[in-house]
């Protein structure tokens, strides 16, 4: 191998490293997206098994989450700091969780939304706690997406420091 080839390989390695660093800005967002995907998948399966007519709610959320996942996969090859579909996805999840939280206090809605749970105070408390945790998680992801879009996240600072070193 001559010197030019080694320099080209080293430059490609640095560029790949930089590309990975930009992609990793969204690491927590990807994990939370997948978490909500599986939560809604389990909810959908439970509603199907319970023959609930409200199975369309988790179905629609899964479709929205799949759009977000597709955007996040695309971020590896086409980096942007504005993940538009992911932001919409989390806003939809936020509004849905808020409505579900309100509906959880009404027995008739609770029975239809969670037919696999017993309509008692313990079950309602569990659902309210889980939805509240979900809302807080969504709010933190929306905050992170906002910081990424303004290039105010910690990863961006590290990326800029790395770029100064390699260029």
Give the overall form: elongated
- Approximately how much beta-strand content do the residues carry? under 5%
The tally of helices reads 7
Low-confidence stretches: none
Major sheet: size, sense and barrel closure?
A: none
> What's the N-to-C terminus distance?
23 Å
Oligomeric state as shown: single chain
The structural class is mainly alpha
Topology diagram in text:
Elements: H1 3-23, H2 27-49, H3 56-74, H4 84-103, H5 107-113, H6 121-149, H7 154-166
Describe this structure as you would to a colleague.
- The protein is an all-alpha fold and 167 residues long.
- The protein contains seven helices and no strands.
- The protein has helices at residues 3-23, 27-49, 56-74, 84-103, 107-113, 121-149, 154-166.
- Helix 1 (3-23) runs antiparallel to helix 7 (154-166), helix 2 (27-49) runs antiparallel to helix 3 and helix 3 (56-74) packs antiparallel against helix 4 (84-103).
- 19% of the residues are buried.
- The mean pLDDT is 94.
Q: What keyword list fits this structure?
A:
mainly alpha; 167 residues
Summarize the structure.
With 167 residues, this protein is mainly alpha-helical.
